[in-house]
Amino acid sequence: MKKILLILTLIAGSAVLASAQPRSAGFRLGSTGFEAAYQHSINKSQFIEGDFGVDFGAAAGKKAGARLTALYNIIWARPAWTDEGSWAIYAGPGISLGYVADKVVYDVGDARISIFDKGAMLAIAAQVGLEYTFEFPLQISVDIRPYLGMHSNTGIKMNDQQYAGKSGFYNAGLAGFIPSISVRYRF
Fold it and tell me: How far does CA 112 lie from the centroid of its chain?
């Protein structure tokens, strides 16, 4: 009976500690797509972030895909630029996977043809950002998040000929160097 009470006490204590940490949820709009964003603070200088959304990639909206990204961020500085609200400069690594469109190059006879085709993507992400939290529960941030990884499609059919799938560098990941904007509700 004592073990059961101890286990229930530990579970209840963990739930209280987890719910006491600040969280935020909202959206992120970037050069490659639109994502639902969630942040959960680990402590005052670290937080995890998870994003899931539509990825337009290098295809500029022609073949939308989906991408899931998880990041671990460290707050490097909290500048006191304003009397109200709080600023944070953060950076961190992460991982991303999805089913997205990217440029694939095929050799057709003497020519090279570039097309945008959907395929699986697995990449390492790196994020650097600046965040402002208002006195009321609203948070905005600007960040860059490049993805370095691989893209692999299953093949295409062109001119009545089937071409095998190809794996290569995830080209659209470099569009992450273009700044993205996030707006989140903090609770």
Answer: 32
CB atoms within 10 A of CB 33: 23
Tokens 């990825």, located at residue:
55
**What dihedral do alpha carbons 142, 53, 71, 91 form, nearest 10°?**
-10
Measured in whole angstroms, how far is the alpha carbon of residue 152 from the centre of its chain? Answer: 19
Separation CA 66–CA 68 (nearest Å): 7
Q: Which of 89, 94, 102 is CA-nearest to residue 32?
A: 102
- Which pTM does this prediction carry? 0.82
Q: What angle do CA 34, 186, 20 make, to 5 degrees?
A: 130
DSSP state of 174: G
- Cα 68–87–175 angle (5° rounding)? 35
pLDDT (tens digit, 9 = 90+) per residue, 80-105? 898 889 999 999 999 999 999 888 88
